[in-house]
């Protein structure tokens, strides 16, 4: 087991990474203050890992809630099901919520914890690669709105993150690729050496080589923890973690939540952001090709869906948390390993990127 720490003063917490952690009752118990626990999961993950988790919680008064699976259920209506269960079980303000699942379960459970009785503790147990390297770390919680993704939520940190890498054995191929998108992101925005490592080791990641996956998860979490420790509420450098996300969120909203996985939309978004960075003269053609080639090797989309018109895409992108005083700002690349948040780009270059998406993309390597 590897242990990282996200440094936030009195609200600092550990991130545990390793195999067999779901059975570690000592890890869970050390972060639970009261006797009541509610485990929130979904219909896909619960049959696989709920019993194992409950066995590690046998000394507590445990309740469970199993929700439907999918991004389309990341809504206020689903959130209310968590509140219903907490109230029906008469859970007090010392209850600890446990999110057992991927990013949707983590975001929903974290938002419920942030708001139930004005805040109760929660623990993240991410079971997808994407959740282990991104959404479970950093305290972003929330739900989607029909007009925009993640527009309703709160910053609320967990007591700990327990990333059991054994859960990745049952992960579908598409979900594995979705997680790889977020891993590639860290190399692009702040860790060029990691990007080089990913180029050399991607085949091992796709083959689910355990030590290689563990290293990629640890390095990704370390990158994110460093950024969040510096800028918890996204007033500065944390916005760089949204590389590809403004494009990606537009794709998810435009297609309907759940049509593409979040990581798939982010992958296409990163390709678009890299293309725009090249059109602005900030990265070379060779670097653009390296970026899109690695994304394609990860079996991820590298172009926007043709069903979204440029006009619709632009409309959706303006419903974004990085819009400031009506001006669209994007995370773009100065080089591989260096990203900036800027509104200083020519609108016609953005339109060119959207119109010609995919025209300079290599075939899957």
Set out the fold topology.
Blueprint: E1 2-6, E2 13-18, H1 25-29, E3 36-42, H2 46-55, E4 61-67, H3 76-88, E5 96-101, H4 103-115, E6 122-126, H5 129-135, E7 140-145, E8 148-155, E9 161-164, H6 173-190, H7 192-206, H8 210-230, H9 245-255, H10 262-279, H11 285-297, H12 310-317, E10 330-335, E11 338-342, H13 347-355
Parallel strand pairs: 2-9, 3-4, 3-5, 5-6
Antiparallel strand pairs: 1-2, 7-8, 10-11
Going by CATH, the homologous superfamily of the largest domain would be Dehydroquinate synthase-like - alpha domain
Radius of gyration: 20 Å
How confident is the prediction overall: mean pLDDT? Answer: 94
- Strand adjacency order, main sheet: 4-3-5-6
**Ends apart, CA distance between termini:** 34 Å
Total E-strand runs:
11
Q: What is the subunit organization of this protein?
A: single chain
Helix count? 13
Strand content is: 15-25%
Inertia-based shape: globular
**What is the string of SSEs from the N terminus onward?**
EEHEHEHEHEHEEEHHHHHHHEEH
Total domain count: 2
Largest sheet: 4 strands, parallel
CATH class of the largest domain: Mainly Alpha
Structural class computed from helices and strand pairing:
alpha/beta
By CATH, the architecture of the largest domain is named Up-down Bundle
């Amino acid at each position: 087991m590897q242990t990282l720490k996200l440094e936030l003063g009195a609200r600092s917490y550990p991130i545990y990474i390793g195999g067999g952690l779901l059975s570690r009752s000592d890890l869970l118990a050390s972060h639970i203050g009261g006797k009541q626990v509610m485990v929130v999961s979904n219909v896909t993950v619960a049959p696989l890992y709920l019993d194992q988790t409950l066995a590690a919680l046998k000394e507590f008064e445990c309740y469970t809630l199993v929700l439907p699976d999918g991004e389309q259920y990341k809504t206020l209506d689903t959130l209310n099901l968590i509140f219903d269960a907490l109230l029906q079980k008469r859970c007090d303000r010392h209850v600890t919520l446990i999110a057992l699942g991927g990013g949707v379960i983590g975001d929903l459970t974290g938002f419920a914890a942030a708001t139930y009785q004005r805040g109760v503790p929660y623990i993240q147990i991410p079971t997808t690669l994407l959740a282990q390297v991104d959404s479970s770390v950093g305290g972003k919680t929330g739900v989607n709105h029909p007009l925009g993704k993640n527009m309703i939520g709160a910053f609320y940190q967990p007591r700990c993150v327990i990333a059991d890498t054994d859960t990745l054995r049952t992960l579908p191929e598409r979900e594995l690729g979705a997680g790889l998108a977020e891993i590639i992101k860290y190399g692009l925005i702040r860790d060029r050496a990691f990007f080089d490592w990913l180029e050399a080791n991607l085949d091992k990641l796709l083959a689910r080589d355990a030590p290689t996956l563990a290293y990629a998860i640890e390095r990704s979490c370390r990158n994110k923890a460093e950024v969040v420790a510096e800028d918890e509420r996204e007033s500065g450098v944390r916005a760089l973690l949204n590389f590809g996300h403004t494009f990606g969120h537009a794709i998810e909203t435009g297609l309907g939540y759940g049509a593409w996985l979040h990581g798939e939309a982010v992958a296409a978004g990163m390709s678009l952001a890299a293309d725009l960075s090249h059109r602005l003269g900030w990265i070379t053609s060779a670097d653009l090709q390296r970026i899109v080639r690695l994304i394609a090797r990860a079996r991820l989309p590298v172009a926007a869906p043709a069903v979204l018109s440029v006009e619709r895409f632009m409309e959706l992108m303006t419903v974004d948390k990085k819009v400031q005083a009506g001006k669209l700002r994007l995370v773009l690349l100065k080089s591989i390993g260096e990203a900036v948040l800027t509104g200083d780009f020519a609108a016609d270059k953005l339109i060119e990127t959207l119109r010609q998406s995919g025209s300079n993309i290599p075939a899957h390597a």
